[in-house]
Every structure is written in structure tokens, then in C-alpha cells.
Amino acid sequence: MKDYYNILGVNKAASQDEIKKAYREKAHKFHPDKSGGDDAKFKEVNEAYQILGNPEKRSQYDRFGTADNFGPNGGPAGFDFSNFDFGNMEFDLGDIFSDFFGGSSRRGSSARQMAQRGRDIGVTLEVSLEEAFRGVAREIELRKLVKCHRCGGEGAEPGTGKINCKTCEGAGELKKTQRTLFGVFSQTAVCPTCRGEGRYPEQVCRECAGEGRVRKLEKLSIPVPAGIDSGGVLRIHGKGEEGIRGGEAGDLEIKVKIKPHPVFERDGADLYSEVGISFVTASLGGLAEIKTIDGQVELKIPGGTESGAMFKLAAKGMPYSASRRGDHYVEIYIRTPKKLSGKAQKNLKDIAEEL
Ligand SMILES: [Zn+2]
Ligand SMILES: [Zn+2]
Q1: Which one of the ligands is nearest to 213 CA?
Q2: 313 near 327, Cβ under 8 Å?
Q3: Is it true that 1-67 and 265-354 share their CATH fold?
Q4: Ligand positioned closest to the Cα atom of 147
């Protein structure tokens, strides 16, 4: 990824005015019509300013490292990525699907000239605590832009080719002379007819109307790793929306949310639960059955245990590495019997005299 701040020679805290000023200086310096100009650098400076000069695009770039994502209509079902609160746990799943779905396609340089990366997609995935404990593969469905299968993303009706653009005569750009403060410049602008490709379909694809992409439902199986916590993010490269004109596809970012559990509370890798024991066990000691995230265990209760006592079941919490687990803390409360036989009541009275 390009460091636009570095290209403009400003720091990340620079004000919009400072960015504008830096852009003017650099654009002036590298302008290809000037002696000592540099076409490649001039283009880079312009690209940087298009992002950093626009406060909205800039904040997206700061946050996601790319600016062509998360538009106001970005993501499925109006998902608003700008409020996404990323957890500190992030799993990079890389291009795990490339073996199944085929890698992203690359086209010739003329097409790539105006290539644009596809949008990233953000979704939230809810899993149970048990699923987070073991890890789970979850099916999700996404309605998103994928490559048009009719035209293979080319935008031309099958059997028809592309013809040279008449507006720009195949150049992909239009030259325009402009008088400015710095002198007379000839500027180039992207050809609006062919959008920079230099060619356009002789006959546009019926399926995608020449766009090369269509909206489609895609099913994916998401591997949720064991131990993940709420707010954890799974990132899958290339499973966002298809790029434009051969641009790479965006990423899919899955924010994991753990459903509340009726028995356990979680704090990082540790689990907490409350367990009631009879006042007899509390007084005399004994065994209590404890439900843990992976089955029942017996806990030895010492005699004279008070309500609120905490016991630790070591390594019975959530996994936090391949072989390590947090602890499970059990808080004891004492159950008071509601109904007692006459005999039991008499026995208790005898005990009460003793205390
Ligand atoms: Zn098509
Ligand atoms: Zn053109």
C-alpha cells in the first residue's frame, strides 16, 4: 500500500491546509511539462492528494489503508462500517478461499490503468460461547458484486469484441491545455467514454450492462478460530466486492460477537460461574458438581465454606493459545432449604443451641 503522507511529505497530523499546500508545492515541482519534472511522481502526488485532500476519504484511508471502500451505501444491508469498533484481536485469514474459488484475475496494462479495487465488506457474526470455545465453521451468505460470468468481467457481450474508443482514439485520456498561475499546462484527463481503457465493448454484455460485475448471493464457510472473543475481527483478503476493470477484489471483514451465556461470564480467557451448595455441604465439606465449558467436574468443598467463597478450576477457561487455557472461577452461594420435615426442624434446633 502506498504511503500517501510520505508522498506529499507531510505527517499524519497535518491539517487540510497543510496537505493542500504540500500538494501544490509537489505538483509544481514534479509537473511533467517543467524541466526536472517527473511524470510518475506527478501522478503519485495527484493520487495522494485525491485521497488526503478529501477529509472523508482521508479518514477511511487512515483507518483502513484504502479509500475506495465503505461508501455511504457500502456493505450489505446498509452496514455502516464507519462505526465499526475493532477489537484488539485480529485474525488475518489471508486468501484462504483462493484454492476453491480461483485467485483474482489480472488483465493487461491498458485495462489496469483504470482498475479500481473492489469495496471491502463488513459483517457481524454471532457465535455461542461454546462455539468460541471449540472453534466453528459458520456458513454466511453475502449479497455482493461478483465478476459477471456472462462476459468474464470484460463487459462485452460474448462473441463480440471491443473497439477502439472514438472519443480518445484509443488513448484512454484526453489532453487539455490550461492556463494557470504557474504557466500554461497541458493536462490529461481520463476519457469519460471509455473510462480510461481506450476501448469499449462493441456490444455491452446483457447481464451486467458493460459493468463487468453483477450482484449475486455468495455462500461462504467462515472458520472461526477457538478462543476468539467478542470484537475479534476475521479478515479474508479478496472476498469483498469484485474490483472494477480488473482491479483486485476488496476484503471481507467479519466482526465476531459472542452471545451472552446463561451460566458463564467471560473475562478474557477466564470464565466465571455461580454455584449453589447446601448449608450442610458448606458446613461439613463435600463434593459439588460444577458445570464447566467442556463438561462436569467435581469440586471439593472444604468444611466451613462461606457464601461468596471463590474457587479456581485451573485451566478450565477459554483457550488462548494452541495448548493453554484460562481459568474457571466458581463463586459459592449457600442454598437455604424452603421445606423441612418436623424431624429435620428439631435436629436443626438442636444444632442452633450448639452454635
Ligand atoms: Zn457481463
Ligand atoms: Zn476513450
Answers
A1: 1
A2: yes
A3: no
A4: 1
Q: Of 230, 209, 247, whose CA–CA distance to 120 is shortest?
A: 247
Using the mean position of ligand 2's atoms as its centre, give its distance from the Cα of residue 61 in Å.
Answer: 29
pLDDT tens digits, one per residue of 116-169: 899 999 999 999 999 999 999 999 999 999 999 999 998 999 999 889 999 999
Exposure of 248 in the CB half-sphere (CA atoms within 13 A): 12
Cα–ligand 1 centroid distance for 278 (angstroms): 71
Give residue 111 CA to ligand 2 midpoint distance, Å: 12
Cell of 83: 462505526
| Nearest listed ligand to the Cα of residue 193 | 2
Tell me if residue 14 falls in helix, strand or coil.
Answer: coil
| The CATH fold of domain 1-67 | Helix Hairpins (1.10.287)
Q: Are strands 286-292 and 295-301 parallel, antiparallel or unpaired?
A: antiparallel
The rounded distance, in Å, linking the Cα atoms of 149 and 212 is: 9
Which pLDDT value is given to residue 187?
75
Ligand nearest to the backbone CA of 114: 2
Distance 169 CA to ligand 1 centre (A): 24
In the chain, what's the furthest Cα-to-Cα distance?
109
CA-based angle 297:299:305, to the nearest 5?
Answer: 155
Q: Which fold has domain 69-136+215-259?
A: HSP40/DNAj peptide-binding domain (2.60.260)
Q: Quick one: pLDDT at residue 64?
A: 64
Consecutive 10-residue runs of the chain (355 residues): their mean pLDDT? Answer: 86 88 86 78 86 84 58 32 38 50 37 74 95 94 94 92 91 81 77 86 92 93 92 92 90 94 96 96 96 96 96 96 93 93 92 86
Rounded to whole angstroms, how far apart are CA atoms 152 and 105?
Answer: 10
CATH topology of domain 265-354: HSP40/DNAj peptide-binding domain (2.60.260)
Residues 89-128: pLDDT tens digits?
A: 556 665 554 433 333 333 334 443 567 899 999 999 999 9
Which ligand is nearest to the Cα of residue 150, counting in written order? 1
What value does the mean pLDDT of the chain take? 83
CA of 187 to the centre of ligand 1 (A): 33
Beta bridge partners of 266: 271
Q: How far is the CA of 16 from the centre of ligand 2 (A)?
A: 33
